[in-house]
Amino acid sequence: MSILVTGGAGYIGSHMVLNLADAGESVVVLDNLVTGFDWLVDHRVRFVKGNVADTDLVAHLIAEYDIEAVIHFAGSVVVPESVVNPLKYYANNTAATRTLIETCVRGGVSHFIFSSTAAVYGMVGLEPVSEDNVLNPVSPYGKSKLMSEWMLADVAAAHPMTYGVLRYFNVAGADPQMRSGQSTAGATHLIKVAVQTALGLRDAMSVFGDDYPTPDGTCVRDYIHVTDLVAAHALVLDHLRKGGESVTMNCGYGRGFSVDAVVKTVKEVTGVDFAVEHGPRRAGDPASIVAGADRIRAMGWQPEYDDLERIVEMAYTWEKHLGTRNDRPSVF
Ligand code: UFG
């Protein structure tokens, strides 16, 4: 029996592969390498280049490797891009996922774990948001993921398949052993942008908005270390394998940091007082979004890296490591 990891050459998927390979699992990675890198895929697993919507290929992989569970990371993840090009998001996230789920049902796959997002909640208040909160995604990205959540619920009611939906908050950091990290070209995520600025890869960075109704006026987010995030997936997989019911889980620590606090931490960790401009708000940013994390903690999740300094340190170390690679992706 094996596990199929789609998007296993991407940021979070490659960390999932490390977790599974370290646990001795048999793993097959399927990734089209549009945003991923084959050198991020651990050498202990099998890598196949291809698309999740290629039914013949996926059906073949399910049969050949006796796939018991699919962990589906592949997709498009840039919120502002989804506003400009919504059809790309409905194709890559919703339609491709529908096709993949169908192939899994036909192939008798028992469990399906899906990368969802805090973006399914939309604009929320300053309090931690629980899984039972009203779902009101404002971006095509959030909607494209929520539609897939709905499909999974309906499919699991009609077919012998259980699922885990994990709603990610702000994923950051890198593998503590530096075997993988965020390597995407042109990344827009705050911690990545800040460490690149500290390294001189960018002249300056902007804080998008300082007039939000938050303690220091900048947006608050729940930054979760990628290694803790993939550990949550492993727990959910274990739960489903033991016959547990389908679950939907927020993945965050349940506490937030403001943009200014993150920038200050990056300056402290790197020792570089880089230039920071305070610019206008970025369209579509909620003032605050923090996970209500009771459900995943009740499942036994014990995060190891709930420490912003360590998260930043690892992101910084990875960024320096990337700089030593001659196939380093360009920054812009
Ligand atoms: N920010 C800046 N300057 C930058 C980059 C980001 O001030 O150069 C701010 C943003 O405005 C936001 C915060 O830092 O207030 C975090 O922004 P990110 O782009 O790092 O992350 P988001 O919160 O926008 O997005 C994340 C995930 C999405 C997910 C979303 C759900 O990356 O996939 O959370 O809330 F959909």
Give structural notes.
It is a single chain. By secondary structure, the chain is an alpha/beta fold. It has 2 domains: 2-172 and 222-251, Rossmann fold, CATH 3.40.50.720; 190-221 and 254-322, UDP-galactose 4-epimerase, domain 1, CATH 3.90.25.10. Helix content is 38%, strand content 18%. It has 10 helices and 14 strands. The protein has helices spanning 11-22, 55-64, 79-84, 86-107, 140-158, 190-198, 226-241, 259-270, 294-298, 308-323; strands at residues 2-6, 27-31, 46-49, 67-72, 111-117, 162-168, 170-172, 204-208, 220-221, 223-225, 247-251, 257-258, 275-279, 288-289. A 7-stranded parallel sheet has the order 3-2-1-4-5-6-11, with helices on both faces. The chain has a 3-stranded mixed sheet with strand order 12-9-14. It has a two-stranded parallel sheet with strand order 7-10. Helix 5 (140-158) links the parallel strand 5 and strand 6 (162-168). Helix 2 (55-64) runs parallel beside helix 4. It is globular, with a radius of gyration of 19 Å. The site of uridine-5'-diphosphate-4-deoxy-4-fluoro-alpha-D-galactose (UFG) has 21 residues, from helix 6 and strand 8.
CATH topology name of the largest domain, in short, is Rossmann fold
Give the rounded overall mean pLDDT.
Answer: 95
Could you give the order of strands across the largest sheet? 3-2-1-4-5-6-11
Give the SSE string.
EHEEHEHHEHEEHEEEHEEHEEHH
CATH class wording of the largest domain: Alpha Beta
Rg, nearest Å:
19 Å
Total beta-strand segments? 14
Main sheet specs? 7 strands, parallel
Uncertain residue ranges: none
CATH architecture of the largest domain: 3-Layer(aba) Sandwich
Name the CATH homologous superfamily of the largest domain.
NAD(P)-binding Rossmann-like Domain
Small-molecule components bound = uridine-5'-diphosphate-4-deoxy-4-fluoro-alpha-D-galactose
Strand content: 15-25%
Share of helical residues: 25-40%
Shape: globular
Structural category: alpha/beta
- In whole angstroms, the N-to-C terminal distance is 41 Å
Number of helices: 10
